[in-house]
Amino acid sequence: MNYKRLLILIRKEFILIRRDPGALIAIIIFPLITLALYAYAIELKPKNLSTALLLNDYSLQTQQFLTAIENTQYFKIKYIVRNESEAEDLMRKSKIKVFIKIPNNFTSDLLKGIRPEILVVADSLDQPAIISQAVSSLEQLKQLLYTDIRANINKPSESLFNIVIHNKYNPEFKTETFLIPGVIVFIVMLMVMQLMINVSFRDRDAGTYEFLQITPIQPEENLVSLIVSYVMLGMLWVTMAICLSLILFDLKITGSILGLFVSLTLYVMAETMLGLLIAEYSKTMLEGNEYSKTPIMIYIVFSGFFYPTDSMPSWAKIISECLPMSHQLRITKGIFGKGESFIDILPELLPIVIFIIIITWLFKMHIRK
Amino acid sequence: MCANQYIIDIENVTKYYNHKAVVDKVSIKIPKGIICGLLGPNGSGKTTLMRILCGLIKPDAGSGCCCGYDLIKGTKDIKGKIGYVPQKFSLFAQLTVYENLDFIAKIYGCANREKTISELMEKFHLTKYKDYLTAVLSGGWKQRLAIAIAFIHNPPLLVLDEPGTGIDPQSRYNIWQHLEELTNHGTSVFLTTHYFDEAEKCSMLIYLAYGTLLTTGTKNEIVERSDLKTICIKKKSIPEYLPKTLLQTIGPIEVLLERGDEIYATGTNIDHMLKEIHGIYANKIEYTIEQTQLEECFIHLLEKNNIKT
Hints:
The complex is a heterodimer. Chain A is of the alpha/beta class. Helices cover 67% and strands 9% of the residues of chain A. In chain A, helix 9 runs antiparallel to helix 11 (219-248), helix 11 crosses helix 12 (257-281) and helix 12 (257-281) packs across helix 13. The longest helix of chain A has 32 residues, at 175-206. By secondary structure, chain B is an alpha/beta fold. A 6-stranded mixed sheet of chain B has the order 6-7-8-3-9-10, sandwiched between helices.
């Protein structure tokens, strides 16, 4: 190897990198921003899990129990419900991860030494390990709370209440039950976004895009044909992936199949258009591919698939809510594991539709420019 | 719709990019049924002018018609009346020759599609390549296919961006035969080229340099108008002790070009040129007086207008 020539080649490469500021931003700046986002947003310990409380007994002792729960910082009581079905509804809609029920006679039983039972229902469909860790921490409270009462009734070492834990939707903690629907949503995003960038540059570099402009084809017809084709391709893959999951992993779709396919079509469309937008704002395919890594990294951090969004700071939760993948993950898991109907998923569909409208607007703005 | 006898008729057409006029007050009238060549140095605004004429971009100033439609209001109609062959092969590489023709025929809504396609394939000798992927065709065949596709809707105007670039002489010859045949049937052809042999085949020439129209007309008109005369000197006749570089010092020679074994000295005052040449080389060199070529005319035009390439 000729080292002098090697140095000349390396120098040339750096000149090329320097002359392409777009790619330089994509290669250096965006990953740095993402690194910062990772550092500030990700919390692997359970924290502030959305919790609903059914409090049937108001007393100093129940207040003590609730304060102790909140002091663990694992739980954040967001909803006070009137009955169990209300809590179930919230859990089905993924509004809460945990539901705690304090029974009617909790205080009197406690004082009498009859061990009352506190019911804790955990949504084990989403991040089951983290939720399980938080719920297990409640066991420690049995030893820490009510030492004065225990002394009075001469049971200083025994706990005065039981905690009954019920893992809902995925009681066996099957990994595939919570992982597969999320993986489908994640992979189809990667697939269509990357495909759109490559296809856009294929047409642009080959000159077919310019050639078609001189035919009666309108630019919007060309774009819509691209979007429709790749949405169809994405949906074909999604259908195959779902069928395979049902066969190989014994998963079941307990909710609306129509809802699942409508939402996935809108989601695939949103990601296809995001890919198209990235290509539109990029000068080269290298730049486009580098730019596309940023939304992918954002999805990994903020969508709730890899890391729990409950534990994130509020600004990170806002970002999470803006991402179509966050909503699609909830829809897919909800339909697979919680039996959600088409009506149930409508509130989650709206942000995806808004995302499509914004991307279309940004695209039009750039085309006009 | 504007009705006149010209396929292209534009007046003071101007286009700015970043406040700089890339096409500056260009006025041209191209009669129907001829081959018109647009020449000019790289970056002289040829492609921009072509895009304006094709209705792809609108001029910032000026007016005119292409194929009978207004350049500003009728861009959609213009597109329907033009067959366009870009410089770079822009068809779908993973479609076969037939599929490409069929796709474009469907886009234009051609009646008797099958018949039109088979006639075109016959005309452009593409039948034997019918089922070939266009990706595997040679440059010359790709260009033939591109012209066939541009002609699929029988447009009155065929616009070609450097049709001869990057293809072998035999293919270029075949393509020109096709173009001449098309004009014989009434189609107008408007093309850009850098080749002077191609330019000489055009019935009308337009020379554009950095946005400015320098000249238009037939080859003979341009040469006559230039008032240039050329002396062709045999290189072998130049003595070794009097190098050919001395020709560069002769003031009246305005353009000096070498072609093979000959040197072409061009200027407006032939007597003065000959006197100076004789002064240096005495009677030792062999020369002939020849008709000035387009290349010399265009170089002279650039220098006369103080345009540096």
